[in-house]
Amino acid sequence: MFGKSPLPNFPVTRDCNYVAVFLTMACPYRCTYCINHFETPGRIGRKHLTGKDWIRAFNRITGLERNTGPIPITLQGGEPSVHPDFYEIINDTPERIRLDILTNLSFDVEEMIARVDPQRLWREAPYASIRVSYHPGQANADELLAKTLRLMKAGFSIGVYGVLHPTQAKHILEVQRRAQAEGIDFRTKDFLGYHEGRLYGQYKYPEACSLNGTRTVLCRTTELIIGPDGNVFRCHHDLYEEAAPIGHILDREFTMSQQFQPCDCFGHCNPCDIKVKTNRLQQFGHTSVEIEFTDSPMDMQNDRATATC
Ligand code: SF4
Ligand code: SF4
Predict the structure, then answer these.
(1) Which of 37, 183, 234, 266 has its Cα between 20 and 30 A from that of 291?
(2) Which domains are seen in the chain, by residue range?
């Protein structure tokens, strides 16, 4: 579609906080609370870029080096290890680029140990470069902790995260206690989204996730979000809902913009984009997007959501 000739470089923006590469939306698990399906369940099976095309894309991204430490490219999904070229992508990424991986650890850890030098995934940061999400009911806690220990002993930087979903918080805290007793870095994350009619999470713009109506706003992001087929999206809402992309990572003309863009889907934002959280330096108070309002809140009375909201 975009040819195979060398691509011009482009820098990430000065305020870029995160580069997210969704290698695939496919996942062997079926969590009922999956944030990938905040609105429309089951949108998986999209086209995937090959490993070679991902490497072409990574090669053109510059400006990731910062005085405070490099901005890594974070491989995620879905479950990123489902991508058929997962290991080629890790090993062929240029050395100047640091890689992080978000995974549910469903992959074969012996294959990871055999095929990847742990140094490839090491960097100075206040959190692990392989971040495992524990999903009760999908993964077995004993098996997950054993696999984590195996990778730790092989020299990988790895930590586990559990979401404090209201129905699972007690269990998550118990597994955290067991993990920490074995020296595993196990952290908890707030549940984002609705449960029994209540919206959980701390949001900079609470009405953004109400799903009750829409407003037209101006929005800009600090994240470079790239979907499985190479399309680039303004935010997680657009990624998951397959809204119109703002470009394609293999398009010669693509650049990352710091400009505010109009959006008529405010009210249907994904919690990931609106949540108040820590930035990549673990400083609390960061939000992925900044929104400017150009109308009155009264304009949100009716849901005028378009097909892609
Ligand atoms: S493991 Fe993650 S991507 Fe897979 S279904 Fe669960 S929450 Fe969704
Ligand atoms: S207003 Fe919400 S849906 Fe629109 S671009 Fe911003 S985060 Fe995405």
Answers:
(1) 37
(2) 10-198+222-252 (3.20.20.70)
